[in-house]
Amino acid sequence: MAEVRALQDLKTSRTTAKRLFSRLANTITRSCKNMGVDELKEAFRQISLEADKVIDANDDLEAALAETWTKEAGSSMKEEQSKDIKATAKECEDRLEEVQKVIRETVWSEYGQLELSTSLELAEREGEVVSNAEPNIKLEAYDFMLSQLEKRMKVAKEAYDQWSRWAPAQEKKDLQGRMKGLEVGSAKLVSRKATLIQSKVEQVVNQVATTSFQTPTIKLRPTALPRFDGCRRNFHSWKKDWQALQAQGEPTGSHEVRKFQLLDSLEEKVQRDLRLSTCGTAEEIFRLLENRFGNKTAIALEIVEELQAMPSVKGHQPKKIIELIRVVEKALSDLSELGDTGALKNPLMTKSLEGKLPEVLKKEWLLFVATEKRVQPQKDRFDMLLSFLKSQEGIYEELDQLREEEPVRREPKAPPKQARTRATRANPQGACAVCGESGHKRRLYRCKKFKTLSLAEKKAAIRQSGTCKNCLEVHEDGECKTTFLCKSERCKGREGTEHHYLLCPNPLSKNPPKGRPKTNSVVFNDKKCTEDQEEFLTRLTPELAQQCRNVFCNMAARTLNSAGSKSGP
C-alpha cells in the first residue's frame, strides 16, 4: 500500500513539473519578441531549469517503477510504463530544444548579430589601414595606429565572447575564421614595428652625422635633375650627369623614387614614343633608352656628318669663324665622351676642316703648320689644327667686338590710319544683319525683310548694323546719297529730321481714296513709281537709278497728278 502511494506521489510530481514546464514554454514562445536581451537570457535559464525538473521527476518515477517490476512479473504493464517514461523524456527534450532555438534566434537577430558584425568589421578596417601604411611612415604615427587597432581588437573579442554562443552553427564557424584572421594579422603588424624602429635609429644617426658638419653661411637654390629631350647626341652625357646628381639628391637609393624621378626627367614625347610609363624599374627605362638613343657608332657618324655639312667660311666673317671653331670643339668633346675620337682625328676629316677655313686664315694655318713641324715633327695634324683654332678664337672674338657696324636707319613711322566714318559696325561674315542673306550687307534698303519691319524695328536694325539713316548704306564721310530722302509734305517742314523714305513716320496711305483708281505706287519727286519699278531700281546704282527715274513715262503718274491739280485747294 505504501509503495502504491509513493508511486502516485511521484506521478503527481512529474505531472506538476510537466505542467509548469509547458506553461513557461508557451509564455516564452508567445512573448519572446517583446522581451529585452536580459529577459531573454533569464527565460533561457528558467526553461532549462524547468526541463531539468521534468527530467528528474521522470527519472525518479522510472526508478520506483523498476523496483516494482522486480517484484511483479507483469510484462504488459512493464512495457506500457516504460514507453510512457521514454515518451515523457523525449517530449520534454524536443520542447526544450524548440524553445531554446526561438530564444537563440531572437537574441541573435535582434541584438547579437549587429553588435558582433560591427565590431569585427571595424577591427578589420583598422587592420587594413595599418597594413597599407607607407613604408617610410614615422614610428610615432605607426604606434598610434597600432594602439587604435588594439582597441578595436579588444572590443571585437568581448563582443565575440558575449554573442558567439547565440549565433547559428554556420555563422558561428564564419565568425571563428574572422577572429582568427584578425589575430594573425595583428601579430604581423606588430612585428613590422621593429623595422620602423631600426629606420628611426638610422635616421637619428644620420642627423647626428649631418649636424656635425659646418652649417653653410648662404643658402643655394636647389638644382633640378637634367632633362633629356630626345637628342641622341646628348644621351650619354645626360645619363652620366643624371646618375651623379640623382645619387646625391636621393642617397637612400629607393627604386620607386629613382623610377619616378627618371620619368620626370624625360620629355613627354620620349615617354610616349617608348611607352616608358609601363616600365617597372629605372633600369628597364635606361635599357629602352639605350636601345633607342645609345648607339655610339650612329652618334659618331651623326657628329661627323654635321661637321661635313657645315658650309665653308668666305670672306672676313668673325662670327662664322668663331662658330666653326666652337662646333669643332663640341664635336671633339662629344666624341671623347663616346670614346671614339678616331672618327674626327683622321686625315680625311682634317682635310675637310682645312677646306672650310677662309682664305686669309688658310695662309696663317699653313705658316703655323710649318713652324710646328720644325718644333714637333711627330705631332698629329688634327691636334695642330685644334691648337691653331683655339689660338685664333680669342683673336676673332675681339675682332667681332671691335667691328664697326653701320647704324641702323630708322624709317619714320607712318601715321596710324584711322577710319572716320559715321557707320563703323558691319557684319564680318558678309551677311545682312537683318535677314542673314549675303549680297546686300552694306545696302540695307535692298533687304526685303527690313521693308516689312515696323518703324521702331527698322531704327533698331540701323543702330545694330551701323547704317546711315539717310541712305541706308554703310559708307565713309561725304559719300552719303540724298537721292532717297523722304519727300513727304509732313516731313519737309521739320528741320534736322532728314531720313530715308523707308523710315518715314508718316507714310502715304496704302488705301487710295474712293473714286481713284487702285494703283500700287510710291510717290518720289512728284512722280509715281510702281512697286515693281521701285524694286527694279533698288538693284541699280544710285546714279543709274536716278537716270531711269528721269526718263520713266508713267501714265498712272500723269493721271494722278492731273487729278490732284484739279482737286487742289
UniProtKB/TrEMBL annotation:
- List compositional bias (Basic and acidic residues) regions by residue number: 401-414
* Residue stretches spanning the membrane: none
Q: Pfam families this protein is in? A: DUF1759
Q: Which domain of life is it from?
A: Eukaryota
Report residue spans for region: Disordered. Answer: 401-425
Concerning InterPro entries, the annotation shows: DUF1759
**Name listed for the protein in its UniProt record:** Gag-like protein
